[in-house]
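Co-fold these.
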Amino acid sequence: MGLSSPVFAEDIQALATVDRNQITLEDSLQLSITIQGTQNTPPPELPSLPDFRVTSSGTSSSTQIINFKRSVSITHKYRLTPMNIGQFKIGSARIRANGKIYTTNSITIVVQKPTVQNLSADKSVFVETNVSKKTAFVGEQLIYSFKLFHRVEAKNLDLSMPFGASHFQKEELGKAKTYQSVINGIQYQVQEISVALFPIKPGKAAIPPAMLDLDIYHRTRSNRRGFFNDPFFGQGIRAEHKVLRSKPLSLEILALPEKNKPRDFKNIIGQFNIQANLGKNDLEVGDTTTLTITVSGKGNIRGVIFPEPDLNLQFKVYPDQPEFKQAVAANQITGQKTFKFALVPLKSGTVTLPALTLDYFDPEAKDYRQVKTRPIILTVRPSSTEETLNHVQSNSINNNLKKTEIEILAEDILPIHTQLNDFQNVNNEIGTSTLIRFVFPALLFVMAAFFIRKQKRWTTDVAFYRNQKAYKTASQRLKNLGLSQNSESKEFASALSEILREYIGDKLNMQGKTITAAEVEYKLKESDYQSNVANSTRKLLEKCEALQYTPVSSGNNLELLNKSQDIIKILEKKS
Amino acid sequence: MIKKVLISLFILLCHIPLVHAEDFMNEIARANDLYASNNYQQAADSYESLRNRGFNNGHMYYNLGNAYIRLGKTGPAILNYIRAKKLIPRDENLQANLNFAIQQTRDKITPPPPDTLAILFFWVNNLSLNENINLAFAVNLAFWLTLTAWFYFRTDFLRLTRNLIFFLLLLAFVAISVKLHFKSNSKTGVVLAKTVSVKSGLDASNITLFELHEGALVNITDERQGWVEVQLDSKQKGWIPKDTLEV
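Predicted complex below.
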């Protein structure tokens, strides 16, 4: 068993294992991706595996509690069926869990041809395909059969039976048949499924190999005699998964011969008969009868078409939808197509409906054939009613109104998408990012609302405006004062006092210039400033006032300036 | 330092999906080329491999459906067209090919008609889940922008617009809920077996009520012991093994 090294990240680990790393083209292997530590992960993203056909075999999860410690894991299983022989590397699978990506290590697989020994020994089950003819004409019906021969029990059959859609059209031939067959004295159970193929173009054509996935059950006999020493209880059943491929088939498709080819030949190939019947042979003008044309036989009868018969304006003709019935007999598609036309005579007299012909190519005779109906004679009497039909007008209106119907020759699917820009991986889950996308505009709104409200208050609330601007104004003025030339004059103290009082006035929404130091202390305390801050402010203001009348030194000025800045900062923090 | 770490993390986060996306694109281009050169089985295998690796795209399912049609497998083709319809519901080519595939089946069962909820929320099934979410996101953004504008200007016009967009936002959220409801409750299965006998009970020995064939669309109403109860209409109902169809 191949085992890759696990990749650890916290308590989550990803592990890739295979049940075997040496297989033949007839086998398949199981790749298991186990994620331990969580069960809540999206499916792993497998690496590119062009040399294998990958099918999911489901998932299993496990939860264990050992010594009160809970451990969980989930295993994603895949069946890998090799398409070629050689040595291949299964690259790293990616697993997304908890917003992280975990990868597994790569595993090397060796795929070999089924050995000769294997082939001869394993004749308990084999497949073959055949086609009824190796050389056929375009449009000729071929029978393509797939047969499974088995001597052991076979179950869970999954057949892929490509038929070369670019060279053939396919028709189902019903259910699979089961019968017994003896080959070289050995009896086999045979399951056969057949389809009808119709070549669509001349040249060499190939039918690719059919591929059958199946489980076979071998009965094994144990050496040990079991219960009651009875050989019955010594038996066991061993299941084995197999992939069987048939050989490709090549055919030569011939074009239809040009010799004797009828004009307007409609590519009808097979063997056909034609019949025509009329509902009533004796009727009045304006009365209705039905002309029924029936084509039957084997071949591509579905493609037979009959245009509206040209009856020289003697009848109004109303075509009905053709009816088609198909049957499968002795692996051949046979069928019957019925065309109905309602005829309304416009003139009285004896009328002969001409014979209708159908040209087809008979592949067995390798020549063109024609079948025809017998002419039908009918008698049309004058109308017994008073009312006369306005034949000319009626017919012309009918002709004018009649829509040109487009003849559908075949139907097919519309082409694939090739614009690579359209192929973006779509995440169809609603995750955290989706919720964030919805919540984000709401958060932006809350921020915008906060600023809008602040701006509105700014323009309408004077006290708020002064409060908000106070610190910036005072700081700027103190800075300018510090840089000014009259820092040694008495005006310095006066200016400093004014700045402080105006700052406090702005903060408390009062006239700052006229306020005294004692009033400042009182108002600050009233506005819930701490008493020591109020006290310091009063002392600073008193000092400024005292200095206005006494000589000062530059050292005192600088100290006062710093102290003022400190006081403003403290007051600003408390506000 | 923190800025450098954040930038590196951002580049790493952006880079990983790009590298992976390039992988997917190469594989898609390869599968499309295989289809164009008539290697339908290999093209289908390549698309299936992408799907198994977690790649999810409506156009990829559509192409896979086409490959199966070419291989004559109508069941898987219909299954993948229906998967594609969930992601690209308005694609006309997809609808045409789905109709074509249904016509190729023996039972010719068309998807069930829309119920009352689907008629009431008629636009929900014409949009994929992601498109529904994106629509709701756009309305959500418009609502918060209008609310912000109204908060600033307070005009009657903005108040009316705000209320109208709020109503649309509620409708968009309800539409997402309806879509999720359809996603979790709508259990349409496609029969993949060539022929399956619909039994009256959970055992092969029960009476066969009727037969379904590959590509038949059924409504799954119950699931027990490896069997699913399928319903075609109020009369035709019965049990089939779970492994004969895929949801």
